[in-house]
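<goal> How does this chain fold?
<sample>
Here is the protein in question

***
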Amino acid sequence: MSSSNEATAPEESQSGPATGPSGLRRYLNLLSAPGALRLSVAALLARLPSGMTALLLVSSVARATGSYAQAGTAAACYAVGVGVSGPVRGRAVDRRGARRVLLIAGCGQAVGFLALLAALAFHLPRPLILAVALAIGLLLPPVSPVMRTMWRRSLPEDELRAAAFAMESVVVDMVYIVGPSLVTLLLLLSTPAVALGVNAVLLAGGCLVLASAPTIRDWPTTAAAERHWLGPLRTAGVRWMLPIGLLATGSISGIEVALLASAGARGHSDLGGLLVAVFSVGGVCGGLLYGSRNWRGTTAQHLRLLLLLLASGYFIASLLHGLWWLVLLFLVTGLALAPMMTAQFTAMEQVAPEESMTESFAWLNALGQAGGALAASAVGLLITNNGPDRAFLIPTAMAALAATLTFPLRTGPERP
């Protein structure tokens, strides 16, 4: 793909992988870089609340109001806020610096959680509770886009950048495993109010530590003369990545809904969470493996193959009837999950303009959120009308179509 005003991407290359450290040594080298361990721990703490928020919103609002309908609406308002504000927050980072945005968003969202706590405690009107949930989504700190851009700029070695991008995908998977588990533990030992308070402390603390790091504090900003109202959307490669992200990331939300419904239809609704967790565990293992070595071919080719592997696993799930066969299938299929996300963001890095890198990642996140909402709705409708088995076909089609869209994508092993 090409455009007169886009950053040129290298030609497709079939050359063999470059030499360099591999396996666990690559991750050890990454974390031994100056400040890398501190940044990684701070980013993990700041991101952990994003894996807790949806469950916290549903549980706390449902307990306070006695209505799961209101709880679901609050969660939807949060999701809308996250999706709508993502590109705006990414652009703010590129133009104003990461430190200012992290401090404002991190502290603002922490205050939002405390405001939600007060609104529920004093039984304030429903529209106000929904407005607070929306504000919490709007103020989500752009930790993942910031970290991906920071690794891109601070790591000159291709091998370490590959490990960092893989680690980012693994951390996201871990956040959505550890976060809900932590919420469950907090609700067992205390109350939703305590859980909301812990969430606010983790968020504010992680963002404060992350914002104080020298790499974040010295973040380069875009000069006014370099700004364009379309931002990275003026680049053809970025525009082409957005439908890929919508379909690829959206298929994950669709498959999770299908898995939960499939477990319920087999009389084991309590094991639905196990299926989703096994899928994520496979993703963590696959992500660590993918980032631990170099692979032949281009990023677009990797992304295409990984999407086809996911689509194959999703399709096979529609043919299986035993629950434990599904557990085994998604443990294996999950091996392609985090590598697919890594390849997706690496491809975006290779086609995005340098001055709008963070906003490019934020757009990819936002389209993934939108795709997830569409997939979850479509799968839910199909389950209602046709049962859970055919519901697997929607994420299958989404992953396969995303793989097809990678054919015109021009990427390479590294940015020029």
User: Anything to note?
Assistant: The chain is about 75% helix and 0% strand.
